[in-house]
Design brief:
Strand content: over 45%
Oligomer: single chain
Shape: globular
Radius of gyration: 13 Å
Number of helices: 0
């Protein structure tokens, strides 16, 4: 059974940092692209960034470049999202996901991030 479990969300002030973690089980982590997408209230889900052992890191949202960093620890089957200089517009539920060319897309239950003064 594949599971992705996120943690690390919370309420922070603008300019603060948060690190999200996602522990993956049930698949061969090394061979999967892993990443994060987010969904803000009343908005559609949007892909944020992802990391592949073959392709490196891909950003999908220009406004997070220089502030968000993704990393993966294949030995621990964990993917991290370091978020610095958070802004109110970063408020959303953040989901980690994993996929490859031979399998379906998997995602977790999400963790809430609120950025507010």
């Amino acid at each position: 059974q594949v599971q992705l479990v996120e943690s690390g969300g919370g309420l922070v002030q603008p300019g603060a940092s948060l690190t999200l973690s996602c522990i993956v089980s049930g698949l061969e982590f090394d061979y999967y692209v892993v990443g994060w997408f987010r969904q803000a209230p009343g908005k559609e889900r949007e892909e944020v960034l992802c990391a592949s052992n073959e392709e490196g890191v891909t950003y999908f949202i220009e406004s997070v470049k220089g502030r968000f960093t993704i990393s993966r620890d294949d030995a621990k089957k964990t993917v991290y999202l370091q978020m610095d200089m958070l802004k109110p517009e970063d408020t959303a539920v953040y989901f980690c996901y994993g996929y490859n060319d031979y399998d379906t897309l998997y995602w977790g239950q999400g963790t809430q991030v609120n950025v507010s003064s």
